[in-house]
Amino acid sequence: MNAREAALHALCEVDEGINLKEALGLIFERDELSEEDRALANEIAFGTLRHREEIDQIIRETFIGDFNAADSTLKNILRMAVYQYLFLDRIPVYAVVNEAVNLGRSLKEKSLINAVLRGVIRNKKVQSMREPQVWVLRKILEAYPEEGEKIIESFKNRPVPYIRINMLKANPELVEAKLKEMGIEVKEANWLSEYRRINRLGSLINNSLLKQGFISIHDEAQGMICRLVDPKPGERIVDVCSAPGSKTTYMAELMKNQGLILAGEVSSARLRLVVENAERLGLSIIKYLLADGRRYLVSDFDKVLVDAPCTNSGVIAKRPEVKERVNKKVLTRLANLQYGLLSNAAKFLRVGGVIVYSTCSILPRENEEVIERFLKENENFVLEPAKEFVPNADQYLKILPGSYNTDGVFAARLKRLK
């Protein structure tokens, strides 16, 4: 299997409801692809999905028949080819067309593929997505009339990778030196001293720095949520939705591996990811609970993090399939789930304790509206201004995509008074 075949298989899996990252991961486990082919497969698959709406618009202008009703494989072959033609200048046009025709050989659609792509090549004008037809993008424009277009444009960019240095095990200078030896560019992050911005992940995935727990791959904006929790050595903390464990382990690092973190998760497979992360990083204060965060009851904890499942509307650059899967019904279901998790977590705290509620969504329905409802129904809680604990915040911590080359996130800090 080559890079384009891997990308095609993964995109067809997405059409069946599979997460793109998981689909590619399974393919890479099963088939031996070179690092170069893996990188190209990632580029084509994620890029095609990010730009899918405008690519489909362009294809429809030259496609013969109903493009929506076409075979999934055929549609994805054409999408991949148009993406490469429009956005990957390093790939010659003849190679784009030839590879697409080769991929479609089993479909017996050689003439159609060739005709559509030749038509696209003659029509070089790419229309910018000014009025998105995708539901979640329209909601973003409604919520952010001034910044909305910039946010949507940012989803088309390749995400900037960040690493977090495990200060309990690693020397930052030595980590940076090792990364530079590997040809990886290292820059200071926006706010947090443990984080570094790098130009690529590449061979880092299988490197000893990661495997031995000296670093983690973790977006800096996600780390800001942990800083809003403000975990201290010796405290007792619950992380209600803990998988895959990036925030759980960062809090444990900030606590200097002293105290207790109870990591809850409803999925045994996902809870296993938390265990593996903690073991890799050498963290022993984390205990594990397989349970639905809306159902169980613990008490007298100092702090609780509810990093709730969400639409992922703040990380569409990393999860482009979100655009196809989020609608009004999904948003309503998630908002109810989020409120249920937050309401139950309120019972875990001692008087004077703190809940941090967070999402990687930027939609008010999942964020401000959940907090406002909670405060209205729980008068023994107050909102503590996020700006008192983290930089670049106001009442809430809110980081929008496209602003700092990070994920988009939201978080609120709530204190129990009585």
Helix-strand blueprint:
Blueprint: H1 3-15, H2 20-30, H3 35-50, H4 52-60, H5 72-87, H6 93-103, H7 110-122, H8 135-143, H9 148-154, E1 162-165, H10 172-181, E2 186-188, E3 195-198, H11 208-211, E4 215-217, H12 220-229, E5 236-239, H13 246-254, E6 260-265, H14 268-281, E7 286-290, E8 301-307, H15 322-325, H16 328-345, E9 349-359, H17 368-377, E10 381-384, E11 397-399, E12 409-416
Parallel strand pairs: 5-6, 5-8, 6-7, 8-9
Antiparallel strand pairs: 1-3, 1-4, 2-3, 9-12, 10-12, 11-12
Helix pairs in contact: 1-2, 1-3, 1-5, 3-5, 4-5, 5-6, 5-7, 6-7, 8-9, 12-13, 16-17
Function: Specifically methylates the cytosine at position 967 (m5C967) of 16S rRNA.
Keywords: Cytoplasm, Methyltransferase, RNA-binding, rRNA processing, S-adenosyl-L-methionine, Transferase
Catalytic activity: cytidine(967) in 16S rRNA + S-adenosyl-L-methionine = 5-methylcytidine(967) in 16S rRNA + S-adenosyl-L-homocysteine + H(+)
